[in-house]
Amino acid sequence: MNRRAFLGTLAGGLLAAPLAAEAQPPEKVYRIGLLGASPPGSPAWRLWEAFFQGLRDLGYTEGRNLIVEGRYSEGREERLSELAGELVRLHVDVIVAAAGQPVHAVSRATTTIPIVMANHGDPVVSGLAASLARPGGNITGLSILNPEVTGKRLELLKVVVPGLTRVAVLWNPGNQIHRQDLGQAEAAARALGLQLQVLPVRSPDEYEGAFSVMVKERASALLVLGDLTVWFNRGRIAELAARNRLPAMYVQREHVEAGGLMAYGVNLADNYRRAAVYVDKILKGANPGDLPIEQPTKFELLINLKTAKALGLTIPQSLLERADQVIE
Length: 328
Known about the structure:
The chain is α/β, with parallel strands linked by helices. Helices cover 43% and strands 17% of the residues. It has two domains: 30-145 and 268-297, Rossmann fold, CATH 3.40.50; 148-266 and 300-327, Rossmann fold (3-Layer(aba) Sandwich).
């Protein structure tokens, strides 16, 4: 090859390289919707951070191959349907719903866009899925269903409160899962020799009256069944429990961080990380109706020693050693 031919070949190769690079198809950008109660910056945002970390581990980066549309009710349950509708109109590829109420709001808004539950009490009994093994519709994800957990909460209260015989239970009659939890609590109470004082609370303005009834009827401890309304009013509930000197058991760590005595429940951060795996599978073409709904495997116990001391309670050392976190 003479010098002129070589230079021509070299120049052609140099020109072809950028053209070949430009010819590569651009990376697909996915759009996902988030529906929950807690906006960025709130204490529960750590759960969404666990979800985003799960996405990053799977190769998704917001602004590169991912657009995130977040909608948050900030504790106003009545806004969930409106926010779910907004996400549907954006034609997102998948919607991740934070908990029971958001899941139901999205399920009413669409039967075609895939929905991933970060947590739900019982999607089968609620009519969201045909079964855990094969949901069958457009909804899959993670459940926090574990019938033994409610009984375990009462058992832990009995260990901490000497001579415990009567436990008040705060529950929301509008929450279908609470009805199941209440049935489990009643069965566990019979086995533990406890009496339950069941107090329905539908809105925050009923908390004060419910605590007055607890004190009047001599409850010795309190079990709080969790939902979005309870979560957003956790500080007020903890303050009322302290004022009325009632040791209280909750379902989420944030209640203990807000001054509650104890919490025992699912490790929700782990659930949110796992939700990212479902999103990845769906974006890669999986049918949500074919993806089995997972049940929890990680539970955590938190104890607030400062609250225990204020109530005059001594937490057994054996229980402290079992705790995942002790707040002093």
